[in-house]
Specification:
The chain is an alpha+beta fold. About 40% of the residues lie in helices and about 20% in strands.
Length: about 400
């Protein structure tokens, strides 16, 4: 028996094989379908997708044999990969000096007498294994059978390339997730650490204003007022950042049963509405089963925006709901100033705003609607907006049941 030579690119070849992370994985229908077809087309008892590891050949898919690997020293495929561009055919292994005394050939129960294998190559041309057909009697493939086997080998290569791409995407996803987690931790830590100094600054400005009011001229009082307003604005900005990053940590599988209008009543108790505001709830008090905290945060952000950016004497907000077999559908419609047409495509992007100040003259931070979109998508839903300047805006979103 002649043991196959080690390929000159063995180190790179094994590296390519290991990058696939395919060794010792479970059976997959796509591969099994190809081996079944190869055996049928070539008229052989067995067919195998063999991957040649450092000391063994491991079978990703087998038809007609009940083992999952053999030693590399007895492998026909270890010979085949030395000629990556050519199909290797052994019509009668008992007459071939390389294999005549090979244990796979001399086996009395299921001998390998005929072998034909097409090397399987990766994107860089490394032959990592073969698609091969085996038979227990001498045989020779016809020209059409050889061509068919080579075509099927190309299909295996496409599956392997797709697997390699999926591995790269999964690795990129993990790296991205790790970086995002670090960013969230950083943002959360910094935001928390800044809240207390800001609170102290706000309280101190109030104390200075009260205690030294008689000593301060108009400019001093104005500067203290600016200091407090800026501190409050920054505190609000930090709170929005915290809400945005905390939203990504919601356990969306934590579902509870509740009624929509009851939730909206709770939200109204939380909102500080200091002007005429008419909020109309849905006619039907819809029963909902989902993550209540996430839906509450969505409605809070939408309602706060409708109230803050309304320029009418009386703010009117209409909330509707629908119930389908697979989704809940909601809309929040207001009679506000509307979103400028050139801003509507970016309104859900982080830190992007309409550019308009709210009814108190303060500009938004561009965080709330990003949080809304994130939560809606995390709930397997979608959101869209329709807006007309000086008429109003309607946000419509769905969440999956």
């Amino acid at each position: 028996m002649k043991i196959a030579q080690i390929p000159s690119n063995e180190v790179a070849r094994l590296r390519a094989l290991n990058r696939l992370k395919i060794l010792d994985t479970v059976n997959e229908t796509h591969y099994d379908t190809i081996t079944q077809l190869a055996s049928y087309v070539c008229g052989t008892k067995s067919s195998v997708i063999s991957l040649v590891d450092e000391n063994r050949q491991w079978f990703k898919s087998t038809i007609g044999i009940d083992i999952c690997e053999t030693g590399r020293d007895v492998s026909f495929c270890a010979h085949a990969i030395n000629n990556p561009k050519h199909l290797m055919e052994v019509p009668d292994a008992t007459l071939d000096p390389r294999f005549h005394d090979n244990p796979l050939v001399t086996d009395n129960t299921n001998p390998v007498i005929f072998y034909a294998g097409v090397p399987l190559k990766d994107n860089e041309g490394h032959a990592i294994g073969t698609l091969c057909v085996l038979h227990n009697k001498p045989k020779k493939l016809k020209k059409k059978q050889r061509k068919a086997l080579q075509s099927l080998a190309l299909q295996v290569e496409e599956l392997l390339k797709l697997r390699a791409l999926n591995n790269e995407l999964e690795l990129s996803r993990k790296h991205l997730k790790r970086h995002n987690d670090l960013l969230k931790d950083f943002a959360g830590t910094v935001s928390h650490d800044m809240k207390m100094p800001l609170a102290n600054l706000i309280v101190t400005s109030d104390l200075l204003s009260k205690k030294y009011d008689a000593l301060l001229d108009s400019s001093g009082k104005k500067y203290l007022k600016y200091l407090k307003q800026s501190s409050l604005s920054l505190s609000d900005y930090i709170s929005n950042i915290l809400t945005h990053y905390e939203a990504s940590s919601y356990d969306l599988d934590d579902r509870v049963e509740f009624h929509l209008n009851d939730l909206l009543e709770e939200i109204m108790d939380l909102l500080d509405v200091n002007h005429d505001c008419e909020i109309n709830f849905p006619d039907e008090n819809l029963s909902i089963n989902c993550n209540k905290t996430a839906l509450e945060q969505i409605f809070i952000n939408l309602l706060v925006n409708s109230i803050k950016y309304n320029d009418k004497e009386t703010t009117v907000i209409n909330i509707t709901s629908e119930n389908s077999d697979t989704f809940y559908r909601f809309s929040v419609k207001d009679n506000g100033r509307g979103i400028p047409a050139d801003k509507i495509d970016t309104i859900f992007e982080l830190f992007k705003t309409s550019g308009e100040p709210d009814r108190d003259g303060k500009k938004g931070h561009g965080i709330g609607l990003t949080t809304v979109k994130q939560l809606v998508e995390d709930l397997d839903g979608s959101i869209n907006v329709q807006s007309h300047e000086k008429v109003g805006t309607t946000f419509t979103f769905t969440i999956k049941k």
